Automatic annotation (TrEMBL):
One of its GO terms (cellular component) is external side of plasma membrane. InterPro entries: FG-GAP (IPR013517), Int_alpha_beta-p (IPR013519), Integrin_alpha (IPR000413), Integrin_alpha_Ig-like_2 (IPR048285), Integrin_alpha_N (IPR028994), Integrin_dom_sf (IPR032695), VWF_A (IPR002035), vWFA_dom_sf (IPR036465). SMART domains: Int_alpha, VWA. The keyword Glycoprotein applies. Belongs to the integrin alpha chain family. This is Integrin subunit alpha E. It comes from the Eukaryota. FG-GAP repeats lie at residues 224-276, 326-386, 387-450, 454-512. Gene3D superfamilies: Integrin alpha, N-terminal, Integrin domains. Chain A, domain 2, ntegrin, alpha v. Chain A, domain 3, von Willebrand factor, type A domain. It is a single-pass type I membrane protein. One of its GO terms (molecular function) is integrin binding. Keywords: Calcium, Cell adhesion, Disulfide bond, Glycoprotein, Integrin, Membrane, Metal-binding, Receptor, Repeat, Signal, Transmembrane, Transmembrane helix.
Length: 767
């Protein structure tokens, strides 16, 4: 017998016992056809209890053998004696283990032998669609009896000739010497279908029943060499691929089913029911297609879809998508021998619990020699469409890129799921002792990036690794450090990935701005590095800060740009190794530049606004008439007035016709005598007396045209003057209105005044 095992290794709470599943014994396959076997057991009083137990053992062994050979066999058992009793029907037999246990629990009815009534009961109550019988299923009846009919109200000939008996193949087993009698033998022959040689069996006693098992198996179950050239499940290799869907379902591949056309089985742990999915049992082009070589589950809007790869189908490979509504979508390979569909991976990039992409591996894709390729299919509007393939900058010959593809979780913590692809034969031609690579492709808001972020070669991990990347898995924290790990299989080794980290860099300046007209300014900068990672609260978060003193010196007077912010560039890198570490050393995220830029702005007179808002008005006046050939000069009076905040780096462009020649520009200085200006002066005051450290002062200003000195008189009350801590003060003065001619910045010096606390203020106009 062929046994198909699927071994399960998991600490998950919903996979407990058994540790391995003998699929043939534990499920029936839902299909439109199949084989239905009704066993009719004689439980009359003429059978000794010991022989009845032997009959039960024979039925048990027969059903167990059939379960191992026939995935689509359903059983029902009817016992007859004083009554007609259904021990279990076709639906009950879907749970094979429970059904076999029911056989052992059968108790004998005894009394009369109502064989005809029992057969009619099978026609009425077993082979009935309302009782779970399939319309197109092959129907078989096996009658086990020890003698002729006794006290049966029904006529056997009438029952056998009933229209319901059409298409039912009947096998009769007679036990004991009673069938030496002509009447008993005639009844047995009537029960059995023609020819008798293949449908009627006689044994001398119940102990000899076991000798019929092999014969019945060959007669009833179509196996290779006895029922045509097509095998069904005998060489199915169930469990060649597998994926757990949820707490109740598992999807397994059966590449050898139906002459290696293959298929997949969706198994229900609770009901013990499996559904067989394939292209078609009759499709000639599916033969040797290996459907089920790989399996995957797609979470679509209407529910789960089941995906299976057939890498040898039509020589180019094929992927079948079995949708919830029963329809199928076919993804076809485009190169002969590429093994398209040998690897499948569904990816939920944005982690919204709906599949976004299906990755299909074609590891034997040929350019110069089996470089391999991974196709990217996007799920949109209920269909998969190919949007490209994952690229490798310089594909290595015979690398077999795409041999394995795995969704590895969000390893760079950007909110999008990432993917790893194995190329287990890469670099083998260069070094046969160490070869293989894996590639990391990151997800983002636009999908899966087509270019890899990391290429990890076996030689970079450890010497002697072979077939590095032949298996990959991830998305879990194996090392208990709250970071997602990736496991990579190689010949005799398993390696674990290095964690990826990101740094948030901040810089804070004190003071926050530079004074423009100071010859030098010293600014303290606090530079901080904060490592972002999914650490739990019990783990320390990496945070480090440095204090830097920045000294800005004015080397030469500004002649153009005196107001643009100063830009600082900070570059960083990790200097660590795996030495002296319990876990692999982290590495920087390749998508984050290892540098940061910060700006130190100049202090500008914008009335404490972040951006100066100038209000420029341009007016011009010129001659109304210009006589060509007579007018010697054309004079224009231009007035540019700013009634808003200060305007920096202001430029005026004058355009004139080509037949004119620019001569000169004469600036006109407007004379003025004085004005009333309101100043907001920031002094260094005693904090205890003046917590806000500000005072509003009104000054009358006069400007001297020759030496550009501004003089004025300031009066403090006694309370304010005593709050000053020093005699000499540097103050920043903002002119509110209306004396724009003074300019925005003044250097003020206060000297001690006479009695009465009056003070003279000398302010030098700076340009």
């Amino acid at each position: 017998a062929n046994f198909h095992f699927l071994f399960l290794f998991s600490s998950s709470p919903f996979i407990s016992s058994p540790d391995h599943l003998l699929l043939n014994h534990s499920f029936r396959v839902l299909a439109d056809s199949g084989t239905e076997i009704a066993i009719v057991l004689d439980g009359s009083g003429s059978i000794d209890p010991e022989d009845f137990e032997r009959a039960k053992a024979f039925i048990y062994n027969m059903m167990k053998a059939f379960y191992e050979k026939c995935f689509e066999c359903d059983f029902a058992l009817v016992q007859y004696g004083s009554d007609i009793r259904t021990e279990f029907n076709l639906q009950d037999s879907w749970n094979a283990n429970a059904t076999l246990q029911n056989v052992q629990n059968i108790t004998q009815l005894c009394n009369v032998t109502k064989t005809a009534s029992a057969i009619q009961h099978v026609l009425d109550s077993i082979f009935n669609e309302s009782q779970g019988s399939q319309k197109n299923a092959a129907k078989i009846m096996v009658v086990l009896t020890d003698g002729e009919i006794f006290l049966d109200p029904m006529n056997l000939t009438t029952v056998i000739n009933s229209p319901k008996m059409a298409r039912i193949d009947r096998y009769a087993i007679g036990v004991g010497k009673a069938f030496n009698k002509p009447n008993a033998l005639s009844e047995l022959r009537l029960i059995a279908s023609d020819p008798d040689e293949s449908h009627l069996f006689r044994v001398t006693n119940y102990s000899a029943l076991d000798g019929l098992l092999s014969t019945l198996q060959q007669k009833i179950i179509a196996i290779e060499g006895t029922a045509g050239d097509v095998t069904e499940y005998e060489l199915a290799q169930t469990g060649f691929s597998a994926q757990i869907l949820d707490k109740q379902h598992i999807l397994v591949g059966a590449v050898g089913a139906y002459d290696w056309s293959g298929g997949v089985l969706l198994y229900d742990w609770v009901t013990k029911i499996a559904t067989f999915l394939n292209e078609s049992k009759e499709a000639k082009e599916a033969k040797y297609g290996y459907l089920g070589y790989s399996v995957a589950v797609v979470n679509a809007q209407d529910g789960a879809w089941y995906v299976a790869g057939a890498p040898q189908h039509s020589m180019t490979g094929k992927v079948l998508v079995f949708k919830k509504d029963g329809s199928k979508q076919i993804l076809q390979g485009d190169q002969v021998g590429s093994y398209f569909g040998s690897e499948l991976c569904s990816v939920d990039v944005n982690q919204d619990e709906e599949t976004d992409y299906l990755l299909v591996g074609a590891p034997l894709y040929h350019i110069h020699g089996e470089e391999g390729r991974v196709y990217v299919y996007q799920l949109k509007n209920g269909f998969f469409s190919c949007v490209g393939h994952l690229s490798v900058q310089a594909p290595s010959a015979f690398a077999r890129f795409g041999f394995t593809v795995a969704s590895i979780g969000d390893i760079n913590k950007d909110g999008y799921v990432d993917v790893a692809v194995g190329a287990p034969l890469e670099d083998r031609l260069l070094d046969s002792s160490t070869f293989g690579s894996i590639y990391i492709y990151n997800g983002d808001k636009n999908g899966i990036r087509s270019t890899f972020s990391q290429r990890i070669r076996a030689a970079e991990v450890a010497p002697g690794l072979q077939y590095f990347g032949q298996s990959i898995d991830g998305g879990f924290d194996f090392t208990d450090d709250s970071l997602i790990d990736i496991t990579v299989g190689s010949f005799g080794n398993v390696t674990v990935s290095r964690p990826v980290v990101r740094f948030d860099v901040t810089m804070r300046f004190t003071p926050e701005r530079i004074f423009i007209f100071h010859n030098n300014s010293i600014i303290t900068a606090e530079l901080c590095f904060n490592m972002s990672s999914p650490l739990e609260a019990s783990h320390p978060i990496y945070l480090s800060c440095l204090h830097i003193f920045l000294n800005f010196v004015l080397l030469q007077p500004c002649d153009y740009d005196c107001f643009s912010s100063i830009t600082l560039k900070v570059s960083y890198q990790l200097s660590n190794s795996n030495e002296n570490m319990d876990h692999p050393a982290p590495m920087l995220d390749i998508y984050q530049e290892p540098e940061a830029y910060f700006q130190v702005p100049y202090k500008k007179d914008c009335n404490n606004k972040a951006i100066c808002a100038a209000n420029l008005t341009l007016r011009s006046q010129t001659q109304k008439k210009l006589v060509v050939g007579d007018t010697k000069e054309l004079t224009m009076d231009i007035s540019l007035v700013n009634s808003g905040d200060d305007s920096y780096m202001t430029t005026m462009v004058l355009k004139y016709p080509r037949n004119l020649q620019f001569k000169k520009m004469i600036p006109k200085v407007r004379s003025w005598s004085g004005c009333l200006a309101h100043f907001s002066v920031i002094w260094q005051l005693d904090e205890a007396l003046f917590p806000d450290q500000t005072a509003n002062i009104t000054i009358n200003i006069l400007k001297d045209r020759t030496d550009l000195l501004v003089t004025g008189e300031i009066t403090f009350n006694k309370y304010l003057y005593e709050g000053l801590k020093e005699e000499n003060h540097r103050a920043e003065v903002s002119i509110r209105a209306p004396c724009r001619q003074l300019g925005p910045f003044l250097m003020m010096e206060m000297k001690e005044a006479a009695e009465g606390r009056n003070a003279n203020v000398f302010a030098e106009l700076l340009k």
